[in-house]
Write a structure and sequence with these properties.
By secondary structure, the chain is mostly helical. Helices cover 64% and strands 0% of the residues. Helix 5 packs antiparallel against helix 7. The chain starts with a helix and ends in a 15-residue tail after the last helix.
């Protein structure tokens, strides 16, 4: 927002509009970051009605996010305190596994959180952009 204003974007005369953009809870802590004009045009002025297709897609997305978190909790849970405090006690293969497990679990957890926030916002009538689209593979 600061960069856009510095480039000459006009401020809105409605402070409630700006406050709803700045403190929109689902995107306040982790993103996805949306430009002010896009947020206002997508969410505050043109709310789209929910259709069966939108509801079904977002319920599947919520289920996928919960499944990702379950995978991390079930299969990628390691004793991280022992892993980071006493690495000399572990084999090289376990250290390599831990490094990749940590990277994969971070990716899956952040991706799950973004899926949940985007789907819940969409079910609430708000359109939030994608934020976590293949970050390790570009």
């Amino acid at each position: 927002f600061t960069v856009d204003v510095g480039k000459g974007m006009r401020l809105s005369g409605n402070p409630l509009e700006f406050m709803s953009y700045a403190f929109f809870y689902p995107t306040f802590f982790q993103g996805p970051i949306d430009r002010y004009q896009d947020f206002v045009s997508n969410n505050l002025s043109q709310r789209q009605p929910l259709t069966f297709k939108i509801v079904a897609e977002n319920i599947l997305r919520i289920a996928g996010g919960i499944f990702k978190a379950w995978i991390v909790k079930t299969y990628l849970e390691l004793d991280w305190v022992h892993y980071f405090n006493y690495p000399q006690d572990l084999s090289y293969s376990y250290l390599w596994w831990g490094m990749y497990a940590r990277a994969i679990s971070f990716y899956l957890l952040v991706s799950a959180c973004n899926d949940l926030s985007i789907a819940c916002c969409r079910l609430g009538g708000f359109k939030v952009p994608e934020n976590y689209n293949f970050p390790y593979f570009r």
